[in-house]
Amino acid sequence: MSRPRYKLVVDPIACDGAGVCAELLPEMISLDPWGFPIIHGAEVPPGLVDLARRATVSCPRLALTLVRIES
Amino acid sequence: MSAPVGPTRLLDTTGGPDVVGLDAHLQRWGPLPSAGSKALLDAVGRSGLRGHGGAWFPVGTKWRAVAGSGRSRPVVVANGAEGEPASGKDRYLLHHSPHLVLDGATTAARAVGADHVVVHLTAEAAAGVRAALDERARRGIDGCSFEIVVAPDRFLAGQESAAVATVNGKSPGIPTFVGIRTVREHGVAGRPTLVQNVETLAHAALIARFGPDWFRSVGTAESPGTALLTVTGRWDAPRIVEVPLGTTLGQALGIDAGTARGIQGVLLGGYGGGWLPTATALAMPFAEETARAHGTSVGAGVVVLLPTGVCPLAEVARVVRYMEGEGAGQCGPCVNGLDVLATSLEHLAYRPRSLRGGVAALPTLCGLVEGRGACHHPDGVARFVRTAVDVFADHAGLHLSRGPCQTTRPFLAVPTTPVARAR
Ligand code: SF4
Ligand code: SF4
Ligand 2, atom 1: nearest CA belongs to which residue? Predict the structure, then answer.
């Protein structure tokens, strides 16, 4: 059985653009000129999954989710 | 009843009445055959019919997903909201041939196992559809219940999740984030929901009668059948035209691509579509796959031939400002990005010296909004702008070197200058 693969998804309606996620996961998230997150990479690298999960639970608006990629 | 031959299927171009009533409809097409769910899913799947609301998604795949989603009885939404200001074909079809659309809706309901159909339409189409539903109820020809819901007059009213929000009586015409769970599983009243454009349903009604092979006898392998277009710029007023997919626009509109004069560029797919050079647009086979290969989409069938004597940059700026105002104001990148994009285009159109970063700034801004909204609204605006920058590059150069156009008249319809009645 292969290891599950994940991607990060932002709900842009819920997101407040305060940028907590970009501080916690700069490897994958930068901010646009207005402070809203830009996700880099279509898949979370295996070594970053734990950090990515931490970023999702720290998002004050629960706007960031880790979604399993169906293969 | 024999299957129609020739280019028109949905529109009666034989000089019959403008509104096809139930008797004339049954005389022309015969009653709907009573096929079951499996046979209908199979026929629609094999026909290759794709969604004419703008997305061109394979209809068979969508119907199967809703039919198989399980938990509760699905609902069908026949979507005629048509918020795009340059489009009039859905309104016209509902006015001209409401029974074909309603036949398509009952076909879809039978296929996916729904017992309720919501007809979601513009205010002006409501009376005609209500009369058609009364006619049908008197004859008792439908096996499901119907309801009419009038869409708000907004660009995004027809967007799938926005349509469901309207029907559910919540924030009408405002999209919701469906990144994880789509309306196919959780839509009207929390039930699995099929939202399907009214023209698509009309095609489905003919497939139910004449079969997938007949349907495929016209069109391309990937986009079979015909399509209704709303054409602006060819005649005094916009007109609705039915064309076999795969024919060139030049052929369909009677314009020779080689000698076309007086057209600066062609917009396909409306304000979320894209611009093409005139010769390309007139000579390419009109179909979604070809449009995509050229960086645009045929969308909901909007075709605008932009005449000379109009400043294309001023037009693009007006439309993008309108699109910015029509955004639902919910997502940061869309709210901020479209405003900056509109302002930059206004600079290019009216005060080119103030455009910081020059024309190259525009595609960069497009990149900042693409794929970052809850719906595809910003993606469509970005495509509209990117293609305009390419097609009108020379004109932009003139603005930057010599200054803006001194006089220009507005041409593209934005709701302060509504589209004249189609036909
Ligand atoms: S932490 Fe959450 S709310 Fe804040 S910017 Fe990131 S996604 Fe948006
Ligand atoms: S992307 Fe724009 S139009 Fe779409 S839901 Fe978000 S704010 Fe509204």
Answer: B373
pLDDT classification of B13: cutoffs 50, 70, 90? confident
Cβ proximity of A69 and A21 under 8 Å: no
The CATH number of the domain where A56 resides is what?
Answer: 3.30.70.20
Interface size A-B, in CB pairs within 8 Å, comes to 45
Q: Do the Cβ atoms of B331 and A13 come within 8 Å? A: yes
Interface touch A67/B373, C-beta < 8 Å: no
Token couple for B185: 């599983």
Nearest to B373 among A12, A14, A33 (CB): A12
- What number is the ipTM of this complex? 0.90
Parent domain of A44 = 5-69
To the nearest whole Å, the CA of A2 is away from the closest chain B CA by 23
Burial of B391 (0-12, 13-18, 19+ CB in 10 A): buried
Q: Which residue has the tokens 């037009």?
A: B315
What domains lie within chain B, and their CATH numbers?
A: 22-215 (3.40.50.11540), 226-307 (3.10.20.600), 312-402 (1.20.1440.230)
Q: How far is the CA of B328 from the centre of ligand 2 (A)?
A: 5
Distance B329 CA to ligand 2 centre (A): 6
Entry pTM: 0.91
Say if residue B147 is exposed, middle or buried (CB neighbours under 10 Å; 0-12, 13-18, 19+): middle
Tally of domains in chain A: 1
Query: Which tens digits make up the pLDDT trace of A12-68?
Result: 999 999 999 999 999 999 999 999 999 999 999 999 999 999 999 999 999 999 999
Distance from CA of A47 to the nearest CA of B (A): 24
